[in-house]
Specification:
The complex is a heterodimer.
Chain A lengths: L1 H33 L14 H8 L4 H33 L3 H14 L4 H12 L4 H8 L19 H26 L2 H8 L4 H30 L2 H6 L7 H10 L5 H33 L1
Chain B lengths: L1 H21 L9 H8 L3 E7 L3 H19 L2 E7 L2 H13 L11 E4 L1 H9 L22 H4 E2 L2 E2 L4 E8 L1 E5 L12 H10 L14 H14 L12 H18 L14 H9 L5 E4 L6 H6 L6 E4 L5 E9 L7 H10 L3 H8 L19 H12 L8 H7 E3 L3 H16 L2
The chains are: A mainly alpha, B alpha/beta.
Amino acid sequence: MSGDRLKIILSLTSPLLIIITLFFGGIFYGLLQSLGYQPAIQKYDINFDAYYNVMFSERYAKLFWTGLGLNLWVSFVSTFLAAAFALFGALAIRKTFFAKTFCNFIYSLNLPMPHLVVAIGMIFVFSQSGLLARMSSQVGLIGSPSDFPILVKDKYGLGIILTYVWKESAFFFIILMSVLQSLGENFEELAQSLGANKWQRFRYVILPLIMPSLFSASIIVFAFSFGAYEVPALLGISYPQMLPVMAFEFFLNPDLNARSEGMALSIIIAMIVMILVIIYFWLIQSKIRKN
Amino acid sequence: MNNKFKFITFAIISLFFSKLVSAEVAPGFNSWDDVKAAAEGQQVNVYMWGGSDAINSFVDDFYGVPLKNDYSITLNRVGIAGTIDAVNQVLSEKEAGITEDNGSIDLIWINGENFWTLKQAGLLYGPFATGLPNSKYVAWDNPAVNLDFGRSVEGMESPWSSAQFHFIYDSARNNYEDMPRNYGELSNWISNNPGRFTYIKPGKAGFVGTRFIKQIFFELSGGHDQWVGPYNDELYTKWAPKVWRLLNSWEENLHRSGETYPANNADMHALFANGEVDMSFTQSPRGAGPTNSSGTTPLTSRAFSFFKNMIGDFNYWAIPYNAPNKAAALIYADLVLEPILQAAQVQPANGFCCGWGIGTDKVTNLEGIAAIKDAQNNLGDAAEDQGILAKALVSDIAAEYQDKIEADWFANVLLK
């Protein structure tokens, strides 16, 4: 008994050490810097000035709160749309062999594509000087390329959402397909033989079965899109600006005092994601208990 | 004020005596021969912005080869995305307790706030710049050289080249004669050509945009002279609202009605090359030449300058406090000031983008003079008249203005 326990402890030690030193070490160091502790420039006081500055100072408050709004909007909308697209796509084609193989192939191609590349592609295709704008003005749909609707670098983050939906729906799709495949069709056939129609089979049989994996995939996508920098940096505008881009601009400032603000903002982003994830888990838990 | 003056006098006097006592050319070296002897066989690790193939190969060809042949020094050029990366690395090394000769960077291509950050934190080696033999070619009496963004250089960095703000237009779309020659004319141009102009968002990534704004202060306030010297809050607060009013009056006629601004030079060139706007900014004495040959701007692009208030500045080499090969770094910093090599960096055929780091009038040997003349004659038709540029040249101003302008532009223009 005690031998087993020792074995477990020993085998857990090395991964735990890595996680603790790299992850919590990084968070701890970031937290210290965000509290104004910067030995490099002889600052040893601990205070919340950086947090206050970022959230409430005249200079940054407006940028921060609009940025937060944009962040929430982009992350919620793109997670929801990507999940919805993938779900209906997967349900529609899972029984047709050819379409399934084809879509699986297409989506697998999409998956390893870096977000950066997709974002650049969006600019090439959807910007006002992009492929679509030029083609539509060539064939006379619009007068000049600048009449093309503003889809990237726009106020509402449409380009960013488009990129995330395109990239993340592939992720959802592949997870859903594997879950659906492992479920088989027994449950559905059973429900059908009991007289359930198509909608009922979806709502009361399939959805509850795939919900746990859909939920955890959503958490991953939401957390990722909330904290990712490269897509909003390429496809966003100067104002409103998503929080990771704002945070990075603090780090670009050669004035080392600005580093605390950058760290504070990063910690805020991390905290928001963590809180949302906790709420999420709590909701799922209470739902499962109810069922 | 008085205390500051006393301090400077004291500093100069003590510097003078310390020089007499040790007669060093640079800390740790008593003569230039010492430096040469110590540098032999070293590898010099040069950290510089690596975004331009032309500059990279210029450094490899024109410095790497003589360093190897004449001094047995191996050049290791490390390309970085921005100078701030090198600054951060030195800072991290300091935090990690890496001192003496155990760092990883020997030289950083630097100026402005990055220099100030390192100097302020005591992370630079020096003073060394005036100890270099070729320092005699540097115009140290020029405030544009001995002040870097309004802050004293004090021998902690040595110049490499220079740049001056002016504009690019496309001769296939516009005529040279029709281009505006001051901010007043630019205002009219913008209202006559709605949607065809934008400027770079002032900020840390877009200091060229900040520069564009500073020049408006000079023009509206009637001249650059009053802005030289330490930060003057009264002067700034007097003129700032007028500048924001002007910029806001442009807004409806800017590209995309000022909803978003290009974040840096590359974004601005892209808008210009795509035909979305009619002007871009350049810092090169060759005007549109470097971007034309790299394909960033259309081949028909040319340069034009306002007749006044075009900010020019110098860029430098600095040596971190923990540079592993300080002797080789000194040799390198000296080599780049050779008149022949300075002429080579201006010579368009060599592909480098920037201007003189030395005062060309200080060169006396015939070979050097000939090389300088030849380079100046070859600048090409993508460059603005060098006389116009020289007449418009003004120095950059105290770094406090930079931060102030960036913050206030955000609040008064972008967020309005």
